[in-house]
């Protein structure tokens, strides 16, 4: 069993930066994939938008188009932690951000591909 705990959310002005962290407990095999999803205000509970993902072995990364060049996903294997560095934040980035994980993910952009989820951390970007 894998547990995920996010941290690092908060309130920031447009143009600012935040770094989200997701600490994992349990066994993470080499094929493990970790992703970040977000749910904007007013969206349904299951309406989670893909943000970024990374393969634990090899470190291949994936991003949604609207965050490319602004967000960076990375890992610290020793700490079993994945990070999402978010720069040049925009009001439309306001959402609750969730960390997700799974073994053998074929399509990391799909939220139903993930087995493990954190509770989320709120990011609010003011204009």
Cα-to-Cα separation, first versus last residue: 40 Å
Structural class: mainly beta
How large is the share of residues in beta strands? over 45%
The total of helices stands at 0
Q: Unreliable segments (pLDDT under 50, ≥5 consecutive)?
A: none
Q: How would you spell out the order of helices and strands?
A: EEEEEEEEEEE
Overall pLDDT: 94
How large, in whole angstroms, is the Cα Rg? Answer: 13 Å
Main beta-sheet strand count, sense and barrel state: 7 strands, mixed
Q: Describe the global form.
A: globular
Number of strands: 11
Helix content: under 10%
Which characteristics define this entry?
globular, 127 residues
How does this structure look, described?
The chain is mostly beta strands and 127 residues long. The chain has no helices and eleven strands. Strands 2, 4, 5, 6, 9, 10 and 11 form a seven-stranded mixed sheet that branches. Strands 1-3-8-7 form a four-stranded antiparallel sheet, with no helix packed on it. The model has no long low-confidence stretch (mean pLDDT 94).
């Amino acid at each position: 069993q894998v547990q995920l705990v996010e941290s690092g959310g908060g309130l920031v002005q447009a143009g600012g930066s935040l770094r989200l962290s997701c600490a994992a407990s349990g066994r993470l095999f080499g094929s493990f994939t970790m992703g970040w999803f977000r749910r904007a205000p007013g969206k349904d509970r299951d309406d989670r938008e893909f943000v970024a993902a990374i393969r634990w072995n090899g470190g291949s990364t994936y991003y949604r188009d609207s965050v490319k060049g602004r967000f960076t996903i990375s890992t610290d294997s020793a700490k079993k932690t994945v990070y999402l560095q978010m720069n040049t934040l925009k009001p439309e980035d306001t959402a609750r951000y969730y960390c997700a994980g799974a073994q053998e993910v074929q399509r990391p952009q799909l939220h139903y591909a993930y087995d493990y989820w954190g509770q989320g951390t709120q990011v609010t970007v003011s204009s």
